[in-house]
Amino acid sequence: VQLVESGGGLVQPGGSLRLSCAASGSIFRIWDMGWYRQVSGQERELVSSISSSDTTTYSDAVKGRFTISRDDAQNTVYLQMNNLKPEDTAVYYCNAVVTPTGYGYNQWPYWGQGTQVTVSS
User: Fold this and answer.
1) Buried-most residue among 63, 67, 75, 115 (CB within 10 A)?
2) What pLDDT does residue 103 have?
């Protein structure tokens, strides 16, 4: 199972970006999906998550500005980021809890390689 992120980049404060993360491989089912971010020298923190029943969570820092969604037909999760602030600058990582094909209902977490988001004027 592989997760590939895209959509990061440089944006001015107040701007928007949309991150995408596509899962591929021998996938039986994807459970929770989420986005984390990490600033160099700091711990990785949960930004937002979405369950297989579309229940969402957001950190207080991004609530009202970011929106998470998923397309199960495409095994993809998105993060729409609006009104970006300099403090949103970080490497953003996609995470998915997956049952690979042939493993019953056992679940494992998988991570993407990360995509840099820089908010600066």
Assistant:
1) 115
2) 86
